[in-house]
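Possible regression after last week's pipeline update?

I re-ran a chain I had predicted before the update to compare outputs. Posting the input and the new output here so someone can diff against the archived version. Not blocking, just want to make sure nothing changed silently.
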Amino acid sequence: MGRFAPSPTGPLHAGSLVAALASWLDARAHAGRWLVRIEDIDTPRCPPGAADFILQQLAACGLHADAPVLWQSQRTAFYAAALAQLRAQGWVYPCRCSRKAIEQALLARGWQPQRHGEKVYPGTCRPPAGTVPAEDAVGELPAAWRLRTLDPQGADLIVTWTDRRLGQAQQNISQTVGDFVLRRADGLWAYQLAVVVDDAAQGVTDVVRGADLADNTPRQCHLQHVLQQPRPRYLHTPLVWAADGQKLSKQTGAAALDLRDPLAALAQAGQTLGLPPLSAPTTADWLAQAVSAWTERWAMR
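New output (post-update):
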């Protein structure tokens, strides 16, 4: 079971199509099902109509889901249940630290700011291991909820996983990430919790997505473990780069996918994925050939 899970903060771009195509091809190569999930939990950043436009873009490329689309904005009760489970087990705790307070605490420890560097949470609000947080007191400021990245004995957590393309990887998430947020202080659910809960609920066995999301994998593996959910296989695909050397993304103003010629767009995405040149008169014919090419390269890996 595979899935494509775009955030509807804007239309798909060329890099988005690479991830969508790879996940679709991988599902077909394994005779599996392909799902589409709209990750619209960050509602303030999701303009009206963006999700529907994304679905139209996928359809124009011949990429159709095998089940009704799942909308994360309709699944908040499931995320709340997962948080309650973690809270009962003492894995999460409330944190009222501002970004400024976190940065000041890190600077006091000798932290040197780096562009795009991770601000590892210093554990300011972390209670003793095994503590089950009490209900919020009346009048208390809203709190974010963080997941511990230390084991019950207080030791660092080292996560090892294998990517089908990138190989084996390991990360000490205690030192490189720190306790991370599952629910924000404004009440919105964090990506890490929602994606893990939904992958398990949908029976996703293979996560195929862009390499820019590879650094999320150890956090999600940790969450899968503490929620007692199966770990899917991972394959992180090559990225598409802009002329200025930045990866294409909505944040950097990547142009919407040009679908005046869907076949040409698919061929370009296939080239990024390392598929051989394919000659086909229609998108359906091209996709059929692409499945064979993908099967030969990836189905047994």
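Follow-up from reviewer: compared with the archived run. The domain at 76-183 is CATH 3.90.800.10 (Glutamyl-tRNA Synthetase; domain 3). Marking as no regression found.
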